[in-house]
Design brief:
Rossmann fold, about 15% strand, 8 strands, alpha/beta
């Protein structure tokens, strides 16, 4: 699969953006979480490239998609629509992990015609009328405190964020983040800590017609209550309980996404 990796460079609103694709077949676009890049999705989703066209972008302000300006959910969603236009893709399964779920939902709201199916893994955003859970807000505030220092102190200022992780995951995270652009990191953590939501209220989700695979989070920074809120308002949602995380149970997540995609019309 790694031999089939193809780099993609495209532009939207004057910003140069990066993505990687592999495989062939029905397109699946997966969006990473905060302070990550496309590799975070590849860790669990790579097996999908055996039967599908797997596309994993670096979101604006992350990885090789450098951007130091003010971020917004609509701009992040428009970037995914621009990526699809660039690749000549009319419809795709679009999903995200954690922060990436916010972008995926915004794509479904702003560009419903291009979403064949929606995949939401560990959602964190309940809507502006509810706001972030205390543990989520605290985690994002901590990231911003460290992210605001990287421009003057270097990316190493973020390393303490990984201290509590298992050694293999900690080392991998530090290696990935070391390649990031400091100004982009500062912009991303500032946006995350702002608490801005991708929609005003979960009631807005009722307008989404796309079938949705919903995998609830299993830790305080990915509250299961958020997924339950989504389940109540998404018309065509299928809930799949996976007790592992994307770091440790990649095969389960890939299998769930493949099964969901196979069932789409």
């Amino acid at each position: 699969m790694t031999q089939d990796l193809r780099e993609i460079w495209f532009s939207n609103q004057g910003v140069r953006l990066f993505a990687v694709e592999s495989g062939h077949g029905r397109p699946i676009i997966l969006l990473h979480g905060g302070l990550a890049n496309h590799l975070a999705c590849r860790l669990f989703a790579a097996p999908l490239a055996e039967r599908f066209r797997l596309i994993t972008p670096d979101l604006r302000g992350a990885g090789r998609s450098h951007y130091a300006g003010a971020l917004g959910w609509r701009e992040l969603a428009d970037d995914i629509a621009a990526l699809m236009r660039h690749l000549g893709i009319e419809r795709a399964v679009i999903g995200g992990v954690s922060f990436g779920t916010g972008v995926a939902v915004r794509v479904a709201l702003d560009h419903p015609a291009i979403v064949a199916g929606l995949v939401l893994l560990s959602p964190v955003y309940p809507g502006a009328d509810v706001g972030l859970a205390p543990d989520v807000q605290a985690a994002m505030t901590t990231m911003n405190v460290m992210g605001s220092r990287v421009v003057s102190e270097g990316i190493q200022a973020l390393f303490p964020l990984f201290d509590a992780l298992p050694p293999a995951i900690r080392d991998r995270g530090r290696t990935v983040i070391s390649t990031f652009d400091p100004a982009s990191v500062a912009a991303t953590t500032r946006f995350m800590a702002s608490g801005q939501q991708p929609f005003a209220s979960a009631r807005v989700l009722e307008s989404i017609e796309a079938p949705t695979l919903l995998v609830p989070g299993t830790d305080p920074t990915h509250p299961a209550e958020v997924a339950e809120l989504y389940r109540r308002h998404l018309k065509r949602s299928t809930v799949r309980e996976i007790t592992a995380t994307v770091w440790t149970g990649g095969a389960e997540f890939a299998a769930a996404i493949a099964e969901f995609t196979d069932q789409l019309e």
